[in-house]
Amino acid sequence: MREPITFASKVAIEHREALERLLFFNGCQDRVARGIVDVIDRFGPPEIVVDGDGLRVQVSELSSGVQSLFAVDAHTGRPLGVAVYLRADLEHVTVLHLGLSEEYCSGGERQSLNLLLRLLKEIRRSSRRVKGVRRMSVAYGAVDRDGPDQSATPPDPP
User: Fold this and answer.
1) DSSP secondary-structure letter at 79?
2) Hey, how many other C-beta atoms are within 10 angstroms of the C-beta on 31?
């Protein structure tokens, strides 16, 4: 049985602490630490910003084009996952950062709900509505043992 999870481009301001845990203090980050560092070195760190009545994530070196997608508990509004991505060029969407609540990570008590897969499928679904987008890639991942996949890395910022 699936938990009621919704997807949104912003989370409520009162969930800032939960969002900070997802992005900056996540116990699962050590699995992909090298990739995270590479993306931060290239594009700058993710930053939580207030956007109207909610929070979203931007990347300091990319002034525009970065989008956030949150997996949110439908009952509480608490963010359970976040993906930060951009349209790297006319045909490609690249996910720069991912964060999942530890209980949804591999080995977590709710891993069977496949939240990471659901979050990526939602990005793919929304990207298909954008004219010209044909491919989605992730800038880093757990299978990456020798460095980032250069084919999945977006162009350098302007």
Assistant:
1) E
2) 17
Q: How many Å from the N-terminal Cα to the C-terminal Cα in the chain?
A: 45
How crowded is the C-beta side of 132, counted as CA atoms within 13 Å? 7
Model confidence, pTM: 0.82
Strand, helix or coil for residue 143: coil
- The pair of three-digit structure tokens given for residue 34, joined into one six-digit string: 């090298």
pLDDT tens digits, 66-105: 899 999 999 999 999 999 998 877 788 889 999 999 898 8
Share of residues in the chain with pLDDT > 90 (%): 44
CATH class of 5-141: alpha beta
Domain layout of the chain by residue ranges? 5-141
Residues in CB range of 53: below 8 A, 6 or more apart: 10, 12, 13
CB atoms within 10 A of CB 147: 10
Read off the amino acid at residue 121: K
